[in-house]
Amino acid sequence: GQNIDQPTEMTATEGAIVQINCTYQTSGFNGLFWYQQHAGEAPTFLSYNVLDGLEEKGRFSSFLSRSKGYSYLLLKELQMKDSASYLCAVRDGHNDMRFGAGTRLTVKP
Amino acid sequence: KAGVTQTPRYLIKTRGQQVTLSCSPISGHRSVSWYQQTPGQGLQFLFEYFSETQRNKGNFPGRFSGRQFSNSRSEMNVSTLELGDSALYLCASSLDTNQPQHFGDGTRLSIL
């Protein structure tokens, strides 16, 4: 079967760094996306990886290892507004988008 | 630039009815995808349209259908509604298939 796995919940402290992991098993691979979704709102795009390595965008970075079926999202200098769900999504070999269940991050003062 | 617009925002229907949801993508975006989001199942892919053609379809019954018009606007239809169809239906548009998707605020459908 096809799986996208990520932790259900994480808690971190304001100003700290947090890493949210995502592992995937899909039929083929055409890219991995990270989205942020605040409660009651639509998901917003954070990052896209199609080649191995690290993509940095401000306080957010995303890493991909295709051979390991693994990605992580790194959030630095955490702010209270970063409390949200973070969704890992893979576009598989059929170009279907498959989403993980999401990781609910709580940032505490 | 206007974002993705979905109408209506909220809808209440009863079992057996049918419903049509609408999505207007960001100007210039030709790819439109639809998703169902529920607390138990998360975001699940329904289908994707590009230039009026269905490119991909998720694992949903035939009661779920869609179409895309020449102006890239898309509609999704669900027939013979069931209680389990209660969910947030999200539309996302992108320039092309492998480009980042931008989501609308969704239509919250409740089936009584």
Molecular structure report:
The complex is a heterodimer of chains A (109) and B (112). By secondary structure, chain A is mainly beta. Helices cover 0% and strands 57% of the residues of chain A. In chain A, strands 2, 4, 5, 9, 10 and 11 form a six-stranded mixed sheet that branches. A five-stranded antiparallel sheet of chain A has the order 1-3-8-7-6, with no helix packed on it. In chain A, a hairpin with a 6-residue loop joins strand 4 and strand 5 (44-49). The model of chain A has no long low-confidence stretch (mean pLDDT 95). Chain B is mainly beta. Helices cover 0% and strands 54% of the residues of chain B. Chain B has strands at 5-7, 10-13, 19-24, 31-38, 42-50, 53-57, 64-68, 74-78, 87-94, 102-103, 107-111. In chain B, the strands form two sheets. In chain B, strands 2, 4, 5, 6, 9, 10 and 11 form a seven-stranded mixed sheet that branches. Chain B is globular, with a radius of gyration of 13 Å. Chain B starts with a strand and ends with a strand. The interface between A and B is medium-sized, with 23 and 22 residues.
Average residue pLDDT of chain B: 94
Pick out the low-confidence regions of chain B.
none
Helix-strand topology string of chain B: EEEEEEEEEEE
Kindly report the average pLDDT value of chain A.
95
Give the distance, in angstroms, between the N- and C-terminal Cα atoms of chain B.
37 Å
The ordered string of helix (H) and strand (E) elements of chain A is EEEEEEEEEEE
Global Rg of chain B: 13 Å
Total strands of chain A: the figure is 11
Structural class of chain A: mainly beta
Distance between the termini of chain A: 40 Å
